[in-house]
Amino acid sequence: MAVSKTKYAYAVGRVRVLETRLLDKGKFDRMLEATSAGEVLKVLAETSYSSYLAELTGAYEFETILRKEMANVLADFEKMSPQPELVALIALSYDLHNLKVLFKNKYLGVENTDILFPAGAIPLHRLKYAVEDENFREFPEVLRRAGEQILDEFVVSRDPQLIDLYLDRALFELRLTSAQKARSGFLEGLFQRQVDLLNLNTFLRVKKMGRSKDFLKQALLPGGLIAGELLLELLDESLEELISRLSTTRYSAVSGEGIREWMDTGTATRLEKLSDDFITAYLQRGRHSPFGLEPLIGYLWAKQVEIKNIRLVMVGKINGLPTEAIRERLRNVYL
């Protein structure tokens, strides 16, 4: 159901204050110039992350503060949004991440509980119980169906890619359906673009593996703006043909530069950066809306990008990467 945009006035006012605390390019430049991960943390001590730093016993534990910050942001936004169920659509990605980890722990005999996210739209203890007891009845229909498909098919195929496939499909089906019900063209456009960019990445990986069109058809997510039929048609063509066919679309810059680097290096690093920057540019268009959902969703994305950039810098410093190698991986900041 649509909600009067004026109901967002208070929440947008809060966002304007929070935006002033986002890390700008200058802060990231200082982090890049730091000589070690410990020195990066000293820069973070001057920011909104300072309250978490006392809990750390060393730079290698930095991931703890990033997860806590994002969890706190999500909790605050669900409280202040007139439509918390739409904010929950963003948090849902962390639930799906947790489900992927829990399913793989269960079926592959691994123990990766340290990478579980502490807060999403569904409490972590409920996710653990559902996977352990193989009972998804209390979940939304789309997630219940995905969980049951994994239970039925993984025992036969033993293919961990099925876990990612069914959960990614469930995530975007739920997101797109909810955006349409809310009559939010803005949200629907966001999720459609995310589907397209994920499908481009999937296309490249499937092509590199030499898999069939049937495999690609199963792997592609529905609901994007790029027709799945186009990607299926191009699977047996050169990547230059893919670039040519996308050159007149909104994805021309992303596909041109990102796919060419893939062709040269065999990695999707540049494509993933350009994809994130593309979503940032889309969300920036709604940033100055005085009322409505757009500034809230834009801020949540900005925070996710900020945390991703901090992680890239910290990992780079810990592993002794050159400053320029780290810099070229950083995403554009939202402000």
Please, could you describe this protein's structure?
The chain has 17 helices and no strands. The protein has helices at 9-19, 25-33, 37-44, 50-53, 62-80, 84-108, 124-133, 141-157, 161-181, 185-209, 213-219, 228-234, 239-246, 252-265, 269-284, 294-318, 323-327. The longest helix has 25 residues, at 84-108. It is globular and about 50 Å long.
Features of the shown structure:
single chain, 335 residues, mainly alpha, Topoisomerase I, Chain A, domain 4, V-type ATP synthase subunit C fold, 17 helices
Q: What's the architecture of the largest domain in CATH terms?
A: Orthogonal Bundle
Task: Please name the CATH topology of the largest domain.
Answer: Topoisomerase I, Chain A, domain 4
Which residue ranges are poorly predicted, with pLDDT under 50 across at least 5 consecutive positions?
none
Distance between the termini: 31 Å
What is the beta-strand fraction?
Answer: under 5%
CATH class of the largest domain: Mainly Alpha
Q: Averaging pLDDT over every residue, what do you get?
A: 93
Taking the sheet with the most strands, its summary is: none
Cα Rg? 20 Å
How much helix is in the residues? 55-70%
**What is the total tally of β strands?**
0
* Annotated CATH homologous superfamily of the largest domain: ATP synthase (C/AC39) subunit, domain 3
- Main structural class: mainly alpha
In quaternary terms, these chains amount to single chain
The string of secondary-structure elements, in order, is HHHHHHHHHHHHHHHHH
Number of helices: 17
> What is the number of independent domains?
3
Shape: globular
